[in-house]
Specification:
heterodimer, A: ABC transporter involved in vitamin B12 uptake, BtuC, 15 helices, B: about 500 residues, Rossmann fold, about 35% helix
């Protein structure tokens, strides 16, 4: 009977606010918001300039999204654990250059092997990040800021000012970057596979749930017997490996690779994840959201181009979106906390 | 009450464990058994080492010496996972849930039931949570996120976690500190059921009525040492209190007799929602007023609000009859108030600055020439005060972080004393300081009072409170529950008031 008394008021009055926080409800709301924004943006742009919906334009958007989405999935995995990986742009560059060099030397190498090479290079970079965060007890922000420069430096050192041109790469590899299966570009297929696998693992496997738990409360995760250190390394490994794959996709799509490939991508990736509802403080968000965020950012970019608006506005709009996303999260969190403080007062 | 055959092997035994942090021995040679079907109370003052024991049982700390035995076999926990695997579940004072995850997922975290392909089985999770809540007789929606649950409900979820892990030993570290009476009753009925089903319960609380109600055996600790372990019915509450505090007051407290002057500090109706309420007191010049009470009773929060570090929701603070602006330490300092905070490393000192800079920090404006600090003035000032406080250091330019705890505390004191405050607030002035330095800090406080400074002291150490204070204000659960004059203050009277047995005392 005590239970009834204690529970009943909150059952009624509190369903509204905190319900939004459930992984389902809140992020469905967030994802629905992104979809709405996308529809509005596409409709407006298409009305201004019907070429925006041409096959080529859509294709460009999807290809661009594919690379960003693969990176964003990795980033989301890391951010869910209350960490961040700023090195992804550099890892992409290093991987792209490594794969380009390997293909340059071995023209007959299958695409699959190229993907594996990129994945391995990225995984190695991610492992270094993870180990430094885990054993160095240094915040991920600092570690990956350092490796951002270190990996980029390695790429410059390796390239030595040279660039790999499309005519030096095997034709089948370039074709992979532009061909489709059942009308869907290969790059998009790969991004979709990455998205689905990561989404399912994070949602339906113990390992995935542990990542959420770690991000939600690192201390409680430790006490719950979760192997926090091991999982942290694994998350960075995934992020690095996916950045490596993204590097291969980048090489296949553009054909021209220099040491600066992917320069500055890291902030786009973080932006995509944050706009897609992945909390910077960990514990919540989905890779679906991150993928949608990547799509939204890419669509914004190309619609601004189609509408002939200054590129400057793209950055301003992305910035505004991030502030909006973080502001909304913060607002809800503060409200809930305040309500809670007054209600739980025992004084 | 006799539900245990004492001949049987205890479910869990702590045997001669010792744990030190740096030079400080937190726990020394403590032993006690936890029997199946029995609730065992662990009592002691703040800092007696109870929490360290809990953390060893939880696998967070490893004992330096001594052993833990489960079912008579020695075990070593290298991580909380090991302790969990051995069937030990810990419910901390502050519940450790994952706010972003659902209640049901909190319960099964790390042990999710799985179905084909190793995927977690959400249906089974829901069923398990519902079954557990039915067994506990509570109504919590398993699908809601843990964020926003009341402390009481969070504790119920923690118990559900323990049940779902088939824990045989349930350790509750002050679970009732933040609960209302109704909620305590609910928690106890759950605990009693578990106990009667054969679980061993270790219960830590400062409330004797709870201890006597739930427990069959009690272990008393003092200063990290084991005092006694007895069946509950062999002990009276008075005897327990005596054993908990049984220390002797000696020359540690060189209190000078001072005739109090005019009222300097006047606090009226100070309230901060959810933390403390309706706090009113006055302090006269030359008086030392101590805030006593348990950790978490709101003492530090009160003085922080008085000084203006924390905001306040209602009430006034007057210094020499002049109202102070709320939420402004700057105004408080300008009016002649100084606060020596509880956590000197975080709040009292800038660890990466030199001793002289730390001492002169609040006065850097006054010591500057044309807005610049040239160093000579700072050094002169710093030398004067550190000498007066007999601070031991190599050079004034050494980093404050290199000093010992006691000397760091003296630097904090020097910093505020150099401002010649009329009200000095000290929060846990001697925490983590060795006995010799303690006496020096006490002597200093006493001589300051003799010079006419109004001193407000927050202390968890009863001997210090009794030895130094002219008046003792006892706080419990955010209110002042007793005001005891020096003549009437005793360990018993303060302790009873702090634990809510004022009438019995």
């Amino acid at each position: 009977m005590n239970a009834t008394k204690v529970m009943s008021p909150k059952m009624g009055s509190r369903t509204a606010a905190p319900r939004k926080f459930s992984l389902g409800g809140f992020f469905k709301a967030r994802e629905a918001g992104i979809v709405l924004a996308l529809i509005a943006l596409v409709a407006f742009t298409a009305a201004q300039n019907p070429r925006f919906l041409s096959a080529q334009s859509i294709r460009d958007i999807l290809l661009g999204t594919a690379i960003l989405a693969v990176l964003a999935v990795g980033q989301a995995t890391v951010m869910i654990t209350r960490n961040i990986d700023l090195s992804v742009g550099s890892v992409l560059g290093l991987s792209a250059f490594a794969v380009g060099s390997v293909l340059q030397a071995n023209q007959s190498l299958p695409v699959m092997v190229a993907l594996i090479v990129g994945l391995a290079v990225g995984a190695a970079c991610g492992l270094v990040n993870g180990v430094l965060v885990r054993f160095g007890k240094v915040p991920a922000l600092v570690v990956t800021l350092g490796t951002l420069y270190a990996y980029r430096g390695a790429a410059y050192f390796w390239a030595g000012g040279e660039q790999i041109n499309a005519d030096e790469l095997p034709a089948h590899f370039l074709k992979f970057g532009n061909s489709s299966i059942l009308g869907i570009p290969w790059l998009v297929v790969i991004a979709a596979i990455v998205l689905v696998v990561a989404g399912v693992v994070l949602r339906n496997y113990r390992a995935g749930r542990e990542l959420y738990a770690m991000g939600s409360s690192p201390q409680a995760a430790e006490l719950a017997g979760i192997k926090v250190g091991r999982n942290t390394i694994a998350a960075f490994l995934v992020s690095g490996a996916l950045a490596g794959v993204a590097g291969v996709l980048f090489a296949a799509r553009f054909g021209t690779i220099d040491a600066a490939a992917g320069n500055g991508y890291e902030l786009n990736v973080v932006a995509a994840a944050v706009v897609g509802g992945v909390a910077v403080f960990g514990g919540s968000g989905t890779v679906w959201g991150a993928g949608l965020g990547a799509l939204l950012l890419t669509v914004i970019g190309s619609s601004l181009a189609v509408l002939d608006i200054n590129q400057f506005w793209q950055q301003a709009i992305v910035g505004a979106l991030i502030l909006l996303a973080i502001g909304a999260d913060r607002l809800v969190a503060v409200r809930v906390a305040k309500a809670l403080k007054k209600r739980d007062s025992h004084v | 009450m006799e539900r245990q055959d004492p001949g049987a092997a205890p479910l869990l035994e702590v045997r001669g464990v010792t744990k030190s942090f740096g030079a400080v021995a937190a726990v020394q040679g403590v032993s006690f058994p936890l029997y199946s079907g029995e609730a065992h109370a662990l009592v002691g003052e703040n800092g007696a080492g109870k929490s360290t024991i809990v953390k060893m049982l939880a696998g967070v700390h490893r004992p330096d010496t001594g052993t833990l035995l489960v079912d008579g076999d020695p075990v070593e926990f290298s991580s909380p996972a090991d302790a969990k695997a051995a069937g030990i579940a810990v419910i901390y004072q502050e519940p450790t849930l994952f706010p972003d995850l659902t209640v049901e997922e909190n319960i099964v975290m790390g042990r999710h039931p799985r179905k084909r392909l190793g995927m977690i089985d959400r249906g089974a999770i829901r069923d398990e949570a519902e079954k557990l809540f039915a067994r506990l007789g509570v109504r919590i929606d398993p699908g809601r996120p843990a964020r926003g649950l009341s402390i009481a409900d969070q504790q119920i979820v923690e118990i559900a976690k323990a049940l779902s892990a088939d824990a045989r030993v349930l350790i509750m570290d002050e679970p009732t500190a933040a609960l209302s009476l109704v909620e305590v009753e609910r928690l106890f009925s759950v605990a009693r059921n578990l106990r009667d089903e054969g679980a061993a319960i270790m219960f830590i609380s400062h409330r004797f009525e709870e201890i006597t109600e739930l427990c069959q055996r009690v272990t008393i600790m003092r200063d990290g040492k084991h005092v006694s372990t007895d069946p509950m019915h062999d002990l009276t509450v008075d005897e327990m209190v005596r054993r908990m505090v049984g220390r002797e007051l000696d020359a540690l407290f060189p209190k000078q007799d001072v005739t109090p002057g005019a009222v300097v500090l006047e606090v009226d109706g100070l309230t901060r929602a959810g933390v403390f309420r309706d706090i009113s007191f006055q302090v006269r010049a030359g008086e030392i007023v101590a805030f006593a009470g348990l950790v978490g009773s709101g003492r530090s929060e009160v003085v922080q609000a008085v000084f203006g570090v924390d905001d306040r929701d209602a009430g006034t603070v007057k210094l020499r009859g002049k109202k102070l602006r709320p939420g402004s330490p700057r105004a408080a300092m300008a009016a002649g108030m100084a606060l020596v905070p509880e956590d000197r490393r975080q709040q009292g000192l800038v660890m990466d600055l030199s001793i002289e800079r730390n001492v002169t920090l609040p006065r850097s404006g006054a010591l500057a020439t044309l807005g610049f600090l040239f160093g000579a003035g700072e050094r002169r000032e710093a030398r004067r005060w550190t000498e007066r406080l007999r601070t031991k250091y190599g050079r004034l330019s050494d980093l404050v972080g290199t000093l010992s705890g006691g000397n760091q505390q003296k630097v904090v004191l020097a910093k505020w004393l150099s401002m010649a405050p009329s009200v000095l607030i000290v929060d846990e002035p001697t925490r983590g300081i060795d006995v010799g330095t303690k006496a020096e800090v006490h002597r200093l406080m006493s001589s300051l009072a003799a010079e006419g400074v109004a001193v407000v002291m927050v202390s968890s150490e009863l001997p210090e409170v009794l030895g130094m204070a002219d008046r003792v204000l006892v706080m419990r659960e955010g209110r002042i529950v007793a005001e005891i004059d020096r003549a009437d203050a005793s360990e018993d009277s303060v302790m009873f008031a702090a634990m809510g047995q004022g009438a019995a005392a």
